Amino acid sequence: DQQVKQNSPSLSVQEGRISILNCDYTNSMFDYFLWYKKYPAEGPTFLISISSIKDKNEDGRFTVFLNKSAKHLSLHIVPSQPGDSAVYFCAASSITQGGSEKLVFGKGTKLTVNP
Amino acid sequence: DARVTQTPRDKVTEMGQEVTMRCQPILGHNTVFWYRQTMMQGLELLAYFRNRAPLDDSGMPKDRFSAEMPDATLATLKIQPSEPRDSAVYFCASGLGHQGRRGMDYGYTFGSGTRLTVV
């Protein structure tokens, strides 16, 4: 029972273009969503988060959009750079509704940005 | 730049041996997690602690795994006896989860992981 799904195992984009990574969830109790980036042989690194009371959060080149009715979120990277090539994980938590701080992760999308 | 420190970085052991992985969370963080990453399952939660108290270890095989926080600067994950199917990368993460939304704005910080190979 996968509560957080990243249906695209991989994505390839050209440098300078937009990268869009998608994530779907099934648990309506989730109220906080995070994106992590992971390079080989390193731990995941926190990128950006969004709470369920918002539909957009922006940090530099990274923007996360949340569509609660569709139970869908996406991470936009503009412009994409070769250094962005990594595996991106979507994660969710139900922290404010008497739930848990634990994160439920998707299986990741490998992004390759070509020079 | 605060870091979560995990040791050892790599561990190769024979089936049946005891394995102990250690984690030093970031000073001041009150929530500590153990995750395991495998190709098949992705990142799965094994256990987590808040203020050193275990809150959820439902993801852990109870008969062979144990997780503890002897003090605020050390978390341990033990496997006894180890089996080949335990081969994975084990991550520790820490954060301010108990701060609710504010804690989540900063996410959790992961260590570099312990790559365990059981032969």
Describe the structure.
The complex is a heterodimer of chains A (115) and B (119). By secondary structure, chain A is an all-beta fold. Chain A has strands at residues 4-5, 10-14, 19-25, 32-38, 45-51, 56-59, 62-67, 72-77, 86-93, 104-105, 109-114. Chain A is built from no helices and eleven strands. In chain A, strands 2, 4, 5, 9, 10 and 11 form a six-stranded mixed sheet that branches. A five-stranded antiparallel sheet of chain A has the order 1-3-8-7-6, with no helix packed on it. The model of chain A has no long low-confidence stretch (mean pLDDT 93). Chain B has one helix at 101-105, and strands spanning 5-7, 10-13, 19-24, 31-38, 42-50, 53-56, 65-71, 74-79, 88-95, 109-110, 114-118. The interface between A and B is medium-sized, with 25 and 30 residues.
Summarize the structure.
Chain A is an all-beta fold.
How large is the count of helical segments of chain A? 0
Question: What's the main sheet of chain B like?
Answer: 7 strands, mixed
**What is the terminal-to-terminal distance of chain A?**
38 Å
* Oligomeric state of the chains in view: heterodimer
As a whole number of angstroms, the C-alpha radius of gyration of chain B is: 14 Å
Question: Given the C-alpha coordinates, what overall shape of chain B results?
Answer: globular
Tell me the overall shape of chain A.
globular
Beta-strand percentage of chain A?
A: over 45%
Question: What is the chain-wise order of helices and strands of chain A?
Answer: EEEEEEEEEEE
Rg over C-alpha atoms of chain A, rounded to the nearest angstrom: 14 Å
Helix content of chain B: under 10%
Mean pLDDT of chain B: 91
The parts of chain B where pLDDT drops under 50 for at least 5 residues are: none
How many strands, what sense, and barrel or not for the largest sheet of chain A?
A: 6 strands, mixed
Distance between the termini of chain B: 36 Å
Structural class of chain A: mainly beta
User: What is the typical, i.e. mean, pLDDT of chain A?
Assistant: 93
* Uncertain ranges of chain A: none
**What percentage of amino acids of chain B are in beta strands?**
over 45%
Briefly note the structural class of the backbone of chain B.
mainly beta
